[in-house]
Design brief:
This protein is mainly beta and 456 residues long. It folds into two domains: 1-113, no CATH class; 116-123 and 130-337, no CATH class. The protein has three helices and 24 strands. The strands form three sheets. The protein has an 18-stranded antiparallel β-barrel. Strands 8-13-12-17 form a four-stranded mixed sheet. Strand 4 (102-113) and strand 5 form a beta hairpin. It is globular and about 65 Å long. The two termini are 31 Å apart. The model is unreliable at 1-5 and 14-22 (pLDDT under 50).
Length: 456
Amino acid sequence: MHTVKHAWITAVFLVFLASAGFAEDFLSVSGKVNLRGVVPLNKDSEKEYPSLLGKIRVDTTHPAWRFHLWLEGGWDGSVDLPARNHSVVKVWDKVYQSITPFLEFKELYGAYSNDVLEIRAGIQRFSWGRLDEYPVNDLLNPWDYTQVARKSLEDKKIGIPSLSVRLAEEHFNMELVWAPLLVPYRLPLPTERWSGFTEIAPSADRHRVEILTREPDLPPRTLENGSIGLRLSGTGAVDWGVTLFHGYDPRPVFKATELVISQVSDKILVDPGGVPDFHKMSSIGIDAATDKGNVSLRAEAAYAVGRYFNTKSELWGYPSGFAFGVHKLNPVEHKSDSMEYGIGVDYRLFEDCILTMQAQQALIVDRPDTLYDRKFETVIWANLKNGFLNQKVETNLNLVYNPEHGSAMARADAWYAFTDAWKAGVTAAAFRGPAESLFGRYSKNNQVELEIIFSY
């Protein structure tokens, strides 16, 4: 309770300070408020309530010493009510955090900089790599998967407590990051709309079943269990980068324990026995980008040592029929090196119209037949962005395709800016593919989304 109370006091104090008459002398304040509603297009889809989300960004204006805050909070309509947790502030030691209202410190750090050196300490997010949406060298920040198919890359990233040191010369940069403790990725509850388990929620409601989730036993918070990353980059005719990473894999993987089915009063309790797991890995990557006229080229690749993958769901050992009791599950994790690489092209068709195309592939070096992922997994992505009426109207058409499983996502949105502060938009999204595929798991989440944004 003290943590929650202090967070609210801090947030209120910062908003008050930013609005005070003298704040402009040493603070730069900006933010936005989003009101969003969802209309599901599939009658079997789980409901999602309207969301009201706010963001505030505060920066001091001193040239050498700087304080930076990025705070988000509000009402999350995708949470399965009643909310499972009572804390308001999102924390760094839980995977399942279905809470609303909520507060989250996306970034909160102090920094010192001069002409060649910058040091930051606090909660940070990083952007390493060149590809859009799925950069293979961007490994420092875990993702929030609670609405993964609809959130932008920036919104998915979870801020981590870290120390970063950056050295910069005219055409060369070096950045070293140390994250002393593991911050886990976040997952939705199995009964929530974006969990990816499309059959669980309706079945649970129909048969008065409660699906239990278990938090993982995180590694001890000792110095040897931290993560470290180093990035060397240069600018010129071709901008280039080399990335080294050693730490915990930010992508979700599960270990199987026991399926437990029991009855308490008039309710059936089911523990599926899949617990989030965490493993260290190492990665070395390269990237490059160049511009020529109306065309921009981007590419990156990474080789990961010791990454874990899960086997097909039918091999986990779940019984074919419903039976009370404890059922042992099979080992479901496979360790292998992997190689990921991709290339992206941005082409300006005319003044306000940009076509972006990207293709990337993952190679699992030692792939057994038990994995759902193929030896090669490909994602092809295209986005067409166009502006009209002096950028008062903006449209986007986004298509993503995974040919190995015939999995696809289509997304189209249109925005109208009434003023510099107010804009409104409508977004339609559709998903298809097999149940375990990248987008097929959301096949019941076809939707139309309406959003109003106020920026300040």
